Amino acid sequence: MIRDAVRALCERFPGEYWRSLEPSTYPTEFVDAMTSAGYLAALIPEEYGGGGRSLDEAAVILEEVNASGGSASACHAQMYTMGTLLRHGSEEQKARWLPRVASGELRLQAFGVTETDAGSDTRRITTRAERRGDRWVVNGHKAWTSRALHSDLMILLARTSDDGLSVFLLDLRELDGVTITATEAMVNHATSEVRFADVEIPLDALVGVEGEGFRLLLDGWNAERILIAAECVGDGRWFIERAVEYASAREVFGRPIGANQGVQFPLARAHAAVRAADLMRREAAARFDAHEPCGPEANMAKLLASEASWLAANACLDAHGGHGFLRRFDVERKFRETRVYQTAPVSNNLILAYLGQHVLGLPRSY
Ligand SMILES: Cc1cc2nc3c(=O)[nH]c(=O)nc-3n(C[C@H](O)[C@H](O)[C@H](O)COP(=O)(O)OP(=O)(O)OC[C@H]3O[C@@H](n4cnc5c(N)ncnc54)[C@H](O)[C@@H]3O)c2cc1C
């Protein structure tokens, strides 16, 4: 039922819509439609006005967006960024913010972790929050903060001591000293740079325990990785469906190109890879929903699914020959969109390092 309903919504936003946004316009109408339908509040418990859905169901929502040719990256963070607040916020913080995030009145879809100089090594961030009297004062910058220009609230990771990071919930609408500048990038989720110059935030903007911010974020990453894996599975399905349709219709040398095993086998291989990654995604979501440890499964799901969608993307582009570069086929756009998942929100190399060193117990590289 969820798949059919999401599919019906996405039919209102066909390829022409996504092409019209190229290279980097934010899909406001699509995000509004997803919000009004309640999909982005799927993971917020019913007591706060959300859908109270499982992660498995939420994953299906995002998978169908990408399988229909759209891009869930523009809005997926509205679904999961609130998880940090839900799991670690005080009762007062949850009651104040979650109902308005659930209704869509407020967008909480920006999270500022990455900094230019720290890169993948999050523990080296330098943005600082200092306690001064009854305020925190924030100074520093964040790079690649996606959707900040389309968000009311933001989760910020900042240094609060030499060896401690903390998480804050910022109300961007009320802050002086915050400058958000759009980053020129070939993606439509409005990524940006955020600068903080003596930005004063209230003491109760702190989420969870001071100095425990890195652990708090780690805790939210499993859900994010499982949802991203679902988007990759959706992309993989889209590429294979399009390629099969095209390769069955296009005739060269007197027969459909799909009759040639050189065209057929890469598609069959990619199909198998997408299905296998989907199984890992489902296992990870089942464990998450059962409150069982799921770090290895969530990470493997994201790794395998992003690799599978990339395999499918290449097979699809190859099957289209030169026509794959015609804008009207959307293949090149989706090719670019799915490639981002290898790097963001986390680089696959870091997943491999986690699997090698934390799961297999190999010697540490850092
Ligand atoms: C479109 C987009 C949207 C994004 N949105 C957000 C967002 O909303 N919020 C946010 O906080 N961040 C966001 N990011 C940032 C993203 O999380 C980072 O780009 C990513 O974590 C990698 O950091 P980096 O780009 O600085 O790469 P670097 O850390 O400079 O790494 C460069 C390359 O070297 C590899 N590498 C580095 N160290 C090692 C190592 N020890 N072993 C093996 N390989 C290594 C990396 O895997 C990568 O391939 C976004 C990025 C993109 C592209």
Write the topology of this structure.
Blueprint: H1 2-11, H2 15-20, H3 28-36, H4 55-67, H5 76-80, H6 82-88, H7 91-103, E1 108-112, E2 128-132, E3 135-142, E4 153-161, E5 164-171, E6 178-182, E7 192-202, E8 206-207, H8 213-249, E9 251-252, E10 255-256, H9 261-289, H10 295-320, H11 331-340, H12 348-359
Helix pairs in contact: 1-4, 4-8, 8-9, 8-10, 9-10, 10-11, 10-12
The structure holds flavin-adenine dinucleotide (FAD).
Q: Into how many domains do the coordinates divide?
A: 3
- In round numbers, the mean pLDDT is 97
Any low-confidence stretches, pLDDT <50, length ≥5?
A: none
Largest sheet: spatial strand order:
1-4-5-8
CATH class of the largest domain: Mainly Alpha
- Strand percentage lies at 15-25%
Provide keyphrases for this structure:
12 helices; single chain; 366 residues; alpha+beta; Butyryl-CoA Dehydrogenase, subunit A, domain 2; Butyryl-Coa Dehydrogenase, subunit A, domain 1; four-stranded mixed beta sheet; Butyryl-CoA Dehydrogenase, subunit A, domain 3; binds flavin-adenine dinucleotide; 3 domains; four-stranded antiparallel beta sheet
